[in-house]
Amino acid sequence: MNTEQQIQSFRSTWGNLRAEIGKVMVGADAIVEGTLTAIFAGGHVLLEGVPGLGKTLLVRTLSEVLELSFSRIQFTPDLMPADILGTNLVVESADGRREFQFQRGPIFAHLILADEVNRATPKTQSAMLEAMQEKQVTAGGELRKLAEPFFVLATQNPIDQEGTYPLPEAQLDRFFFKLLVGYPSAAELTEVLNRTTEGTKAKPAKVLDGAALMDLQQLVREVPVASHVKDFAVRLVLATHPKTGTAAAISNQYLRFGSSPRGAQCLVLGGKVRALMQGRFNVSFDDIQAVAAAALRHRLILNFEAEAEGITTDHIIAQILKDVPKSADVVAA
Predict the structure, then answer these.
(1) Dihedral angle at the C-alpha atoms of 171, 172, 175, 178, nearest 10 degrees?
(2) Angle of CA points 143, 149, 153, to nearest 5°
């Protein structure tokens, strides 16, 4: 296929996914788009919101429209690393001999739902780090590759902090996007009631298998980014680094630490997916700006002053987007 056909194929697949997910999910357009963007870019997603807003339902629906193996891990304080990765068990062979056999854990699937991920201890959280970054795990004394493609879609509750363990910064940085799930509108809530309190139940159809998804992920990587657009993404990330020559004023005032280089990677890759979704084979400034909040909000660490004044990372990102010029010539001037 030529480039135009590839773009149309991507848009068609995107539209089909949205349509099938829409059979189950009501509203939450920004959350669905953000999750699909991360999946097409090959990244993980952290979904944050109060209970009952459809976070788990979204992930389950994704597992139905994508022809991928699916595992759910319910994180609890007593969960152990072996419960995720697997462990060696003593089994008896046909000839009566006993031997160790590795029993794979739920991490060995394409799509992982890490439900209430912040309820597990740091020891268990560490079991996810290698899987999320390297797509492999060290278990049973051996290095074991995970299935490709591999995604972790995690949920957490921001209001109930009793019995929770805040995710370490190293693990947060492994998430491509952090998406904030909000309350539905009156019309959306009415539609939720219509769908869930009557006799009908929607069944979404399969749209995409693993091989086709990986082909589209490769197409995303091939989308060109002009040097001045890439430079804009770099300057956005550098503006989050407090006490440096490139820092924005609001970063110096309210941040302890800024974004890692992964933040810049997510800005560019997220922009590429958005460009394809809109039928373009080039990334614009608007694409970078549109994904900035989701890509950076979990990578900025607030100082005491920000927490005391109720300043959020989203507020800081919005101000940085206003302060950082699109043209590097303005900076030089």
Answers:
(1) 160
(2) 95
Collapsed DSSP state (helix, strand, coil) of residue 48? strand
Query: Which is nearest to 45 in space by CA: 270, 215, 256, 278?
Result: 270
CA 327 – CA 229 distance, rounded (Å):
9
Of the options 3.40.50.300, 1.20.950.20, 3.90.245.10, 3.40.50.2020, the CATH number for the domain spanning 1-76+110-126+145-222: 3.40.50.300
Cβ–Cβ < 8 Å for 35, 144: no
Amino acid identity, residue 318?
A
How do residues 114-125 score in pLDDT, each as one tens digit? 998 888 888 888
Q: What is the pLDDT of residue 163?
A: 61
The DSSP output letter for 147 is P
| Contact in structure between 251 and 195 (CB atoms under 8 Å) | no
Boundaries of CATH 3.40.50.300 in the chain? 1-76+110-126+145-222
Which residue carries 């999910």 as its tokens? 25
Asked whether the beta carbons of 46 and 179 are under 8 A apart, the reply is: yes
Is the pTM for the entire model greater than 0.70? yes
**H-helix or E-strand containing 82?**
helix 81-85
Topology adopted by domain 224-333: Helicase, Ruva Protein; domain 3 (1.10.8)
